[in-house]
C-alpha cells in the first residue's frame, strides 16, 4: 500500500449557518492547516499515487476565498470542509482541517 500525505496552509473566510447564537455566524477568517492523505495499492505510470500538485490545486480552491461561495449550499464547518475536499481528491482516504490551534476536524473514507 502506498500512502502520500500533503500538508498545506490556506487563508480564507467563512460564516456558519447555525441554529444557536454564535459569533461564528458572522464573516470571519482562519489560516486553516489542511492535511490530505491518499492511498493506493499501486502507483500510476509516473510512479505516483496522486501528483502533489493535483492535491494542491484542489485545496487551493479555499485559499483567499469565501469558503461559503466555494462549497455552495454546504455549511462550511471544518468537518464539512474535510469531506468536501476528500470527495474531490483522487484516492483520498483522510483529510484533517485544523481551524485553530487545538481544533481539528477529520474526515475518513
TrEMBL record:
Zn(2+) binds at residues 14, 28, 30. Its EC number is 4.1.2.50. It comes from the Bacteria. It catalyses: 7,8-dihydroneopterin 3'-triphosphate + H2O = 6-carboxy-5,6,7,8-tetrahydropterin + triphosphate + acetaldehyde + 2 H(+). The active site is at residues 24, 64, 99. Binds 1 zinc ion per subunit. GO terms for molecular function: 6-carboxytetrahydropterin synthase activity; metal ion binding. Its cofactor is Zn(2+). InterPro entries: 6-PTP_synth/QueD (IPR007115), 6-PTP_synth/QueD_sf (IPR038418). This is 6-carboxy-5,6,7,8-tetrahydropterin synthase.
Amino acid at each position: 500500500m502506498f500512502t502520500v500525505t500533503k500538508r498545506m496552509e490556506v487563508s480564507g473566510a467563512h460564516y456558519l449557518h447555525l441554529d444557536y447564537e454564535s459569533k461564528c455566524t458572522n464573516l470571519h477568517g482562519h489560516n486553516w492547516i489542511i492535511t490530505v492523505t491518499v492511498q493506493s495499492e499501486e502507483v500510476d505510470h509516473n510512479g505516483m499515487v496522486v501528483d502533489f500538485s493535483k492535491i494542491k490545486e484542489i485545496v487551493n480552491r479555499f485559499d483567499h476565498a469565501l469558503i461559503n461561495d466555494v462549497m455552495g449550499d454546504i455549511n462550511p464547518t471544518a468537518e464539512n470542509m474535510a469531506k468536501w475536499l476528500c470527495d474531490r481528491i483522487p484516492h483520498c482516504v483522510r483529510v484533517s482541517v485544523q481551524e485553530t490551534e487545538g481544533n481539528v476536524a477529520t474526515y475518513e473514507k
